[in-house]
Design a protein that fits this description.
By secondary structure, the protein is of the alpha/beta class. It has a single domain, classed as Vaccinia Virus protein VP39 (Rossmann fold, 3-Layer(aba) Sandwich). The protein is built from seven helices and seven strands, in the order αβαβββαβααβαβα. It is globular and about 45 Å long.
Amino acid sequence: MTGASQSPWPLSRIKRWHHASVHGRRTRVLAEMLAPQISPGASVLDIGCGDGTIASLIAQHRPDISIQGVEFIVRPECKILCQPFDGLRLPFPDCSFDVCQFVDVLHHTKDVRILLREAARVTRRFVLMKDHVNDQFLAGATLRLMDWVGNRPHGVPLPYNYQSRRKWKEHFAACGLDEVQWTTQVPLYPAPFSLIFGREMHFVALLDKKIQEKQSQK
């Protein structure tokens, strides 16, 4: 009999395989890519932090920063300080943090601009994010497969709301954010799996709301 906290077979087996084969490398690579983008001494809010693994690894790389999370359903095993929120409105005043961070969160929403605007409101300056780009041949189908394997065993909602590069630019501009850095060189998978599951379908971006604020004041 399957325990209440366990995923039914075969999801439990997929969950174990994914954790052993993908999870460790993914969290390490993302922490190593995200940590250098955070300004010295920054306060960071990790929106949709999950179990806090990536945030805790970032904190190990950057002991000078403080980092906390929010999550729709807070996991008891979360590795960082985390509080619940309704998935739409962040429970903080304007300009409460130096950096707001998303790691594979926005494609799980029906409207990416809702939380992106909230992040722009709550941050004093930067939004740091990792997500997907739906431009490559068969990218949508490949991303759906990856999403299902990585998240279905955890019961995460899967709206498969993947955006093209053009749409991301539109979302950033609509939320008052400018790109400081953008890269699709995100080595989450070793060869030869990178030829299938990489293909510039993942990006890391650093966004700055102060640039547009200064432009609007001119």
